[in-house]
Amino acid sequence: MSKTKTILSGIQPSGKLHIGNYFGAIRQHIAMQEEGEAFYFIANYHSLTSLSDGEQLRQNTIDVTLDYLALGLDPEKATFFAQSDVPQVTELAWMLGTLCPVSLMEKGVSYKDKIAAGLSPNIGLFTYPILQAADILIYHSDVVPVGEDQKQNIEITRDLAGKFNHMYDGEYLVIPEEHIVKSVAVVPGVDGRKMSKSYDNTINIFAEGKALKKRVMSIQTDSTPLDEPKDPGTCNVFALIKLFADEETQAEIADKYRAGGYGYGHAKKELLGMIKEYFGEARERRRELALDLDYVHDVLREGSKKARERAETVMEPIREVTGIVRHFKHV
Ligand code: ADP
Ligand code: TRP
Asked: Which domains does the chain have, with CATH numbers?
């Protein structure tokens, strides 16, 4: 029998989760909890590179946990925790940093993109991939499900694990595979660009009522008049409909577009109904969970315990081989 695979992924708690995050990451995380030993964590240290409001970060951490639980994460199957509850991560990150050439970080595209988008060029942002590598390597992860945009960070992780094993001449770290989530390409935002919280063009998973309606109605479309035929292939509303509707419904709506007499307003109303229906149960579950925050804290506490235990078994031989002696026992 083959060994159970360790699956790991992280999500930054830097804002409200949107349907791009859902179809691009969360849905696959939840599906994969059935496929191996899954570890999912809230990358709160990573969020410090872009968020400096403590109250906000604390709240986002609880919100993301509520979101995942409501959307189907089962804490009996997957270990869910906060990055900062596993101190071995930052310990390993430092060690990896000592063998990471500066030039490897200088090639990082995501650093350049973030600077171009206006984030402050701090050392934390520059060495972000080293902390991410430690996140992955500290659990001996085999598979890392991430979006296309994370590909380079996984390559850096593999590179650093190889360097470490070579330097200390042993299999101290497992070289992980990436698992690029391919089921959807890029989910467009209301302005047609990639949906992203940095563009303020998101439709949030748990938006509701007037706010949700306003967002959906604001999706940009061209100005083809109502009676004229329309091309579903170039329409942002239809691109979003495709995420929610089965194939038959998609084909019916595409026919209505092509026939004319069907306006973008009609399509938006259908989409709004689909979003409400699709996330309806999760929304209900989230409301209930939010009334029981003790349970949410318990999930994080239990998760961090399991994650720390695993991290410690990986870290012990690493301390030994690097000669880092601890003169007292801590957890
Ligand atoms: P944001 O761009 O809103 O800051 P993140 O970079 O925090 O989102 O992304 C978290 C996860 O969600 C990543 O795995 C990323 O690949 C995925 N993701 C984010 N936006 C989209 C999108 N528009 N389409 C598909 N996947 C997305
Ligand atoms: N960089 C990832 C993102 O922005 C979040 C992340 C941090 C992560 N550490 C990780 C993802 C480890 C996978 C594995 O989406």
From this structure: 6-187+293-322 (3.40.50.620), 207-278 (1.10.240.10)
